[in-house]
Amino acid sequence: MVKQLRTKWLAISMLFVILFSFLIGTTPSTYASNVSDKRVIVMGTSPDYPPFENTDALGSGEIIGLDIDIAKHIANELGYELEIVSIDFGGLITALQTGRIDFVMSGMSATEERKQSVDFSTPYYFARNTIVSKAENNYETLESLSNMKVGAQLGSIQEQVAESVPNVGEVKKLNKIADLIQEINANRISAAIVEDAVAIEMTNANSHLVANYLPTDTLDNGYAIAFPKGSNLVQPFNQILSEMEKDGTLQRITNEWFPEVKQADEKRTGLNIDFSVLKGYVPYILEGVGVTLLFTLVSAALGLVLGSILSLFKISNIKPLKWFATAYTSVFRGTPLLVQLTLIYYATPQLTGYDIPALLAAGLAFGLNSAAYLSETIRAGIMAVDKGQTEAAIALGVPYRKMMFRIILPQALKNILPALVNECVALVKESSLVSVIGVADLMRRADIVRANTFTSFEVLLLVAAIYYVLVLALTSVAHQLERRLRRGD
Amino acid sequence: MIKVDNLYKNFGKNNILNGISTTVEKGEVVAIIGPSGSGKSTFLRCLNLLEVPTSGTITINGQNITDKQANIASIRQHIGMVFQHFHLFPHMTVLDNITFAPMQVKGLSKEAASAKAMELLEKVGLADKANSYPAKLSGGQKQRVAIARSLAMEPDIMLFDEPTSALDPEMVKEVLNVIKDLADSGMTMLIVTHEMKFAREAADTIYFLDNGLLLEKATPEQFFNQPQTERAVRFLEQIL
Predict the structure, then answer these.
(1) Which of A170, A188, A213 represents a domain boundary (last residue)?
(2) Which domain holds residue A164?
(3) ipTM of this predicted complex?
(4) Which one of A27, A279, A343, B143 is most buried, by most CB atoms within 10 A?
């Protein structure tokens, strides 16, 4: 109990610090420079872009790829120890700016737009933009895509290429390459514009798709390493890059990672589900169950303890406590969970210097959020307990705290058990949100496998089944608990 | 033992008690009777501050409990209370119901509290129900457990707020017998009741309340045979 209370206060004070600092303006980060003092250099990447970077889900589970090998080489030359952090592509620039990472290699093109927020090295790879479409359509030029719906990965350079299609019908921007393939299969888009290496993998994994390279044009500025503005790492990195280019190391690494084009085999049409593509990936996905469960447990426990305390505040006669609890509920219910999660994860290291682990940040965000909802549920549960229980306890001289924790709350919790189970079930499923900050939960792992296999349905069906089994197990535990609590009736 | 002086209690604009003064001696058994809404329960609840008096003083064992400085929790430990609707803790067994307060408030060991509880259960004739949950008991059994629960704190004074009003008629006697035994043992007691026969047999003094006033204070003999006020005469006519 004491320990949980302490966690609660830690959480509350941290929250206050965060909110307060937003009012007085953010302080510059010292986090990244601390790290480089220790001769560790932190790289951010979104490992869903083979062969540049992806998770070796069949093997070690580590992040591997062309970018990784180049980064390792450079870090090694400069005498740094390389640490790799997995972050969604859309969050990489933010992570750079907030100082969570020192540089980014993630198949990132050095666009003018990005140059306004980050510094780039010289390019280390020039990709060709490629149109991927169904074999029967076989679109070869941008002109042939006029008036059609065209897909591209959100935040990628190809997004702009797609926009440049003359009279383009609509540009659909999706997070994952695997999503693009599904959209082509479903005929929601006519073609996707991706880069050559990805196109090769896409067509290898889906033989009914074809790839057509576009001529290299000025829009493509090449892949480069991104640094925070004014970083003193740019110069030494460029130095090593130019040496690598001269001595052929760069070409050697590139050749190692580029796949051979497979010959098209059987034609794949319609929804063709083949679970054999998951072979070897299942253990990797199942490891996510532990993460998801741990995370749910932490956030449910935090939510329950904090929610109980808030509900006691709400029914207390002390006005400031009441106001606090009401304001808390209002804020946490009134803002999106995703926003809270991102704020806690990115703002905490900048404000406190504490590099909060993703799983803790997620548990904290979900626990704090869940507490807001639970406090209302628990309050209703407390109100439903017969007033005579309070009077009987008072008449016996039982102090308030003991009365609440031993007499009133146990009865209140019994009343609201079904609502609590609902909350837990919601937590299990909502936990998939944490993949945004790179926690390797079930959903994140599923995304990684989708990126590796370029197929979607098999993985999604598998994780759906796993989530369902988890919820079933949870419900059955809750049922047992309810029976136990109701033994008095 | 208990001294009440000019006790008033309002709920908003409703005046429930309109100046009650009286003294209860150690070992005295008082039956409080009167029509509905006369303030009987409120008067009783003021004695352990479940209701806070609007004005007036209550002194128990020489201590002014209406004083703001008074340690209410410690005073309440010396005053047991039994409610019309029992208010047993439903999530605890009978034994846990009885041992809870002695262990949590007085700091008794589990063994000492259990021994005491079993002794009390024996006394109210429910030793075999120690491990049952309240929901499994009849109304009369619940009320006897509630009495045992109060007694476990070894109070100097017992307050009974209509202890048999929620019971089926055939259960009333078993509860009244327990209360009567307690009265015979010399406990100071105040009982709000509608059981006139019981009041007559068990009480030393009858308080007749009407409209928040203590209209009559007499021995059962006097009160039931020669009520002094016209209101008491009418009341007795209606119920007897």
Answers:
(1) A213
(2) 129-213
(3) 0.92
(4) B143
Using only C-alpha atoms, chain A has a radius of gyration, in whole angstroms, of 26
At how many degrees (to 10) do helices B139-151 and B169-184 cross? 20
Q: Give the CATH number of the domain where residue B60 resides.
A: 3.40.50.300
pLDDT in tens, A42-72: 999 988 887 889 888 777 888 999 999 999 9
CB-based contact A391 B87, cutoff 8 Å: yes
Domain that holds residue B126: 90-154
Compute, in degrees rounded to 10, the torsion defined by CA atoms A5, A10, A12, A18.
-170
Per-residue pLDDT tens digits for B31-42: 999 999 899 999
In angstroms, the CA B144 to CA A21 distance is 60
Residues 394-423 of A with CB under 8 A from B: 394-399, 402, 406-407, 410-411, 414
What is the H or E stretch that residue A324 is in? helix A319-334
Into how many domains does chain B fold?
2
Could you tell me if A487 lies within 8 Å of chain B, comparing CB atoms? Answer: yes
CA angle A45-A226-A198, nearest 5°?
50
pTM: 0.69
Nearest to A395 among B74, B76, B85 (CB): B76
**Residue-wise DSSP of B102-114:** HHHTS---HHHHH
Do residues B76 and A396 touch, judged by C-beta distance below 8 A? yes
A398/B104 Cβ within 8 A? yes
Q: Which range has the worst mean pLDDT, A22-36, A263-277, A307-321?
A: A22-36
Question: For residue A17, what are the CA distances in angstroms to A307, A330, A345, A364, A391?
Answer: 20, 18, 14, 14, 40
